[in-house]
């Protein structure tokens, strides 16, 4: 029986559960013996000119190896991009937390002592704490530019005239709030010279991309840089490649010749690791009174933070996915990406797609409430039907496969939706303090959208053991287990004879790595293809060894042997064939480039209870379909769904990065930033659904971000639904108790 | 994340603790469970030069029935208060509140004395101490004295402890009125209270409704005058000055105080 | 100052800075890096170890405070015969971990929770782990793991011998 699709426990776990993973700060490799600890001095102001830096007191502290500032960096050529982001702030800081200096110390604990002694003179400038202020253009972040708009774009078109035929038109401005990714392991890096090469250990999702970024920034040959990825304690998109702090650490090693190691504190992480989301969204939706949604427009103002690292790109993705699962007659989106004196924004679980789903699912519920039709029914009427796939949306995405109405139907059936509505009606009739709210989403998302492909090498040695080298770079996803399953299935080599290797650019020089839920469909397919090539090599060799024709041979994957079909006496095992192949055994490389991205989809139903006196919402049930095509290992897929759902729920109910009017972060510790914990969540009810894609031979789409994309709008819709009978039509995220209470008051006052 | 350097001293007796504190003067602080002090030191908001560890003074960890009152050693941990059979029977308000402080790991270290002395109006136990009308026994260079809970909290993180004084015991009179309730409103289970209410009989104390732990005087006067729970609760915000911060506006806190007080009084009444 | 702490049954003595946190003592002096540091406000619980058998956040305990006491970390949970603790077995069987960074602290918190409450409800497990953050799993399988471990521990014999850790590729 094939192992594909079966529940297999993770091969990663024994180590992680006993000795623990080896994360970057755990490394005790000889190259890092005596490495200096780096502590980063950061700006305490959101926007200021640096008029002087005095490092003398810090440099005099015993144990201080060096204090580095922008003055030590190589001079930048004249006439460069005025909005380019430096490694260390030179004449100006643009966000609280921006790196200004590096302190290298012999001991770990001395770092903060020395950093406190670095004296920086700041001349404050007016802050630009949010998009509203940025759009006025009163204060520009970058001299030499004429506005704070870093990028604009559109997808599709939906002019005012498109709404002329609509009975009902609703326009609303909502917020998709800024979030902090909070991987449990903060950013960390170590660097050491080994001969004339720089070896980097980095907590990254993409060792090869990191190598490119570091080599480029340090003006080095890629061949002179090696990046090794130890275990990574979570990434969620925030550890894609490397960012300026990490590159500055690598530069410090290059500049001083000293081995260095760095791990940030959580407080630093909260202000200096990239944030996610951060959009102000205005939607306009129009349709008929009987539930047909005809036109949809979304206008986005994307907060980039102080530098446009990924802001415009994220907004473009939101625009691309704006129409969601619906078959509109007219749909269009536009965006402006603006810089603000805040932490830069980049990818965070979903990266542009949760924003799209949150807007359209809110708009659909808004429309449903306006016309008084059940939101499930409005969705059923308007989702793209299954016979229209592949479906190209008006905003430019071509969805490969989907069963949107069926997905919604299965979730509602699993939850017993009519019974829930009946319970809601009973509580409303009684005027209970604790009301029930039902919220749903039907979502679609784009995975492997980068179109960069992935690599793999499979080798079999003379003992019959296999080694898989993968370009994918796991940080919790369980790739080692999954890829071993693929090779067992393809070659019949048992999993306990298969080793998976990732994360060393010397061993795997060409790869993209892991983000955008691409790994199984691209990295996994590359593994299958490489294994397939090994299989063909083996077939040719076995044919010679058995003196039979290739066509008469079969691979018995249950036993892992090659033989003439029906004649087990001829059986050869993998070790024998690999021996015959030569001293290096069997080996094959593969690179898989998909022809297109894939589009997982799903439906979520959230059931919340809202205490109408305090406004506090509790999520009591969460039922989902998250369809990512063929599932390789349900254990892994479920884990990704659970984790995704939790982070999405957190956005709806709890988490928010906030700044004061001076651009000072207000949520820079885990006390103030409400990262979700176990008591705030129920156990989730996952419904299985597999609608394959034809884009790759595994039939697989990406599962990693789907749960997040579907859960946020469902939970927010549920909270609003719980109090809609009191007149509430919208609440911005996070739907904190005070926000719900305020919405109830406002609705009551308006009646 | 790393405290500034300091000198660590360990007291073997309460007397030694007081002596070491006298020596250290303004540069010294007592270290009990450390879960109020060490977090401040790790962020370098507090930089004492001398830490006097009193955490091994096991003779100050006890819960005793002393006839008219319960005597609790200042170094009794929240965990032990939470699981005390004696408290469950005599002072369930304290047992319940202690069980809601932080999380299990924090409760294994944090002490009632440390919490009271820290004097944070956002902490739960100061309000509970007020609702229980406790008396604090304090030991200093010139001997012991008693301070009524109602005289203890003077200002923002400011208590009536003189420099160098060590809190040794909390004496709680066995309540005449047995009805009690503890309402702690948070967004997440682990959070500090946005607002909290502790009720023991006719005494009502508030958590996080101002810079100083305080009783809800308006509510108490209403109850004493014979008002029912709903009517009395409507006065919960009287005389308070709650903060507006990232967790709540002052107006919302005032609303919560009223709602939680109503619920607390109703629950307390059901326990009478 | 000099401290002597028993870590997983082994005496570790060292001259350390007075301000050394127990978490760093464990990681750098005792050389046991399973215990991780994930925050600086005593919030995340990744640093949870047992101090004299009770869960504590080792980032908020001074090594000096643990002087002369017993510390147990995840590396010390398995029996001297190498057999895993029921909680370790359960986390594996129920896929209670993904990136693994929160896991040692989560496991130690769970061990302490079950020692104090051997038959918890789901709600009690969730509340009992309120001091431990996980970003990967959504807690769903962590809760299943703890409940499974509770059932396992209640079998006659308690820490039921299960043999060595399961081989790779063990079906779930």
Number of helices of chain B: 11
Major protein interface: A-C, 67 and 66 residues
- Provide the domain count of chain C: 2
Spatial strand arrangement across the major sheet of chain B = 4-5-10-6-7
Mean pLDDT of chain B: 97
Describe the structure.
The complex is a heterotrimer of chains A (751), B (272) and C (172). Chain A is α+β, with helices and mostly antiparallel strands. Helix content of chain A is 29%, strand content 25%. Chain A contains 18 helices and 28 strands. In chain A, helix 8 (311-320) crosses helix 9 (353-371), helix 11 packs across helix 12 (417-430) and helix 13 (479-491) runs parallel beside helix 14 (519-546). Chain A is globular, with a radius of gyration of 27 Å. Chain B has 272 residues and is an alpha+beta fold. Chain B has eleven helices and 14 strands. Chain C has 172 residues and is an alpha+beta fold. Chain C has two domains: 2-76, Roll (Ubiquitin-like (UB roll)); 86-154, [2Fe-2S]-binding domain (DNA polymerase, domain 1, Orthogonal Bundle). Chain C has helices spanning 22-29, 86-93, 103-116, 122-128, 140-153; strands at 2-7, 10-15, 48-51, 54-57, 70-72. A five-stranded mixed β-sheet of chain C has the order 2-1-5-3-4, sandwiched between helices. Chain C starts with a strand and ends in a 19-residue tail after the last helix. The chains are: A alpha+beta (751), B alpha+beta (272), C alpha+beta (172).
Which structural traits does this protein have?
heterotrimer, B: alpha+beta, Uridine Diphospho-n-acetylenolpyruvylglucosamine Reductase, domain 2, Uridine Diphospho-n-acetylenolpyruvylglucosamine Reductase, domain 3, Enolase-like, domain 1, 3 domains, four-stranded antiparallel beta sheet, 11 helices, 14 strands, 32% helix, 24% strand, globular, C: 172 residues, alpha+beta, Ubiquitin-like (UB roll), DNA polymerase, domain 1, five-stranded mixed beta sheet
